[in-house]
Amino acid sequence: MPRYYMHIYNDVDTTDEEGADFADDQCALDRAVAEARGLAAESVRHHGHLILSHRIDVMEGSDRMIGSVYFRDVVEIID
Amino acid sequence: MTAPHTLSPLFRRLTSRTPLSPGDRAALADLPFRTTSIDPGGYIVREGDKANRCCVLLSGFVYRHKITGDGDRQILSIHLRGDAVDLQNGLLDHADHNVQALTRANVAFVARKAIVDLCADRPRIAHALWVDTLVDAAIFREWIVNVGRRNARQRIAHLFCEMALRQEAAGLCTGPHYVWPMTQVQVGDATGLTAVHVNRTLRDLKAEKLITMTSTDVRIENWAGLQEAGDFNPGYLHLPPGFADPEL
User: Fold this and answer.
1) Candidate from A17-21, A34-38, B225-229, B239-243 with smallest mean pLDDT
2) Residue B99: how many CB atoms within 10 A of its CB?
3) What is the CA radius of gyration of chain B?
4) Which phi and psi (to 5°) does residue B68 adopt?
5) Which residue in A48, A24, A28 sits closest to A36, CA to CA?
6) What is d(CA A32, CA B147) in angstroms, rounded to the nearest whole number?
7) Residue B209 phi, psi (nearest 5)
8) Which tens digits make up the pLDDT trace of B23-38?
9) Which residues pair with B38 in a beta bridge?
10) Exposure check for chain A: N or C terminus, fewer CB within 10 A?
């Protein structure tokens, strides 16, 4: 099973050195969406703000970029 | 020089809280057992298993967990050398949870009947095992508070503090270096967090110079700071005198 790495770019950058196995790219991206929503919620809960440009980059191994999941794309703000 | 008895890690754990007579110790040493080695990920107990034996962990780390109907895993406790891992099932008909090896583990299986008979003959041993299950229950209570009411930083810092003190009490380490047997996914399953959230939180703990770590060990750089970060009070571990305030 391929190993994917989710690098976080929010208040501070956090490299994923451990990774996790997912069946395919879409499964990894689906998890990244859930993770981004979780981090966004944590930011609101603890800092009272949400920075929409923050993101998670999903890579397979060290060199194949699968995609970036921006907070702005996974959180709907309704006024 | 006589080699230590195979079950000596269990003797150490039990006698740390309950003094036992030479006769009690001899009776414990006479318990029949069978040893085996378990690979990482190997099952020691499966939910639904008929409970007919108890397992003493001789080396390595194992974890107790349950799986939800949706397939999510919640890790309920971590066990290390000397723990009588499934006394939980000792007097019940079947296992209501799973126990799996985190690392390579050596275990001794003792027939349930042998333990029940021993307790009937030796009240101090029954007392010691009773105390042991009560300490397990105290740790479960603390974990409920951890998962239910603490934030991510507190949950993970708390887990580091607990693992450090328990490893010291088991004679595995003297600090500030400890074995760290868990992946980020497993830490997440023990703290109700996702692996990404764990990674992010670990980064903060390292940046605050509370810990440094590799994939297999952790060094506590600031014990007082880590306890404060984890809202950690070691009272629930009911450690023997001398372990409650280690020199870390």
Assistant:
1) B239-243
2) 28
3) 18
4) -75, 170
5) A28
6) 22
7) 60, 35
8) 999 999 999 999 999 9
9) B105
10) C
Q: Are B160 and B213 in contact (CB under 8 A)?
A: no
Quote the pLDDT of residue A45: 86
Structural tokens at position A45? 């809960």
Q: Are B76 and B97 in contact (CB under 8 A)?
A: yes
Tell which residue, B64, B100, B105, has the closest CA to residue B82: B105
Structure-token pair, residue B109: 């299986």
The whole-angstrom separation of Cα B87 and Cα B110 is 10
Q: Which of B199, B195, B200 is nearest to B72 (CA)?
A: B195
Q: Are B221 and B123 in contact (CB under 8 A)?
A: no
> How far off is chain A from B199, nearest CA to CA, in Å?
7
Of B101, B116, B36, the residue nearest B63 (C-alpha):
B101
* Binary contact (A18, B152; C-beta < 8 A): no
Q: Does residue B65 contact residue B74 with C-beta atoms inside 8 Å? A: yes
- Check if the beta carbon of residue A14 is closer than 8 Å to that of residue A54: no
Gap between the Cα atoms of A52 and B186, Å rounded: 29
Integer distance in angstroms from the first to the last C-alpha of chain B? 32
CB-nearest partner of A16 from B199, B207, B215: B199
ipTM of the complex: 0.79
Q: What is the pLDDT of residue B122?
A: 96
| Residues in chain B closer than 8 A to A39 (CB atoms) | 196-197, 200
Residue to mutate among A1, A15, A35, with most B CBs inside 10 A, is A35
Q: Report the Cα B129 to chain-centroid distance in Å.
A: 15
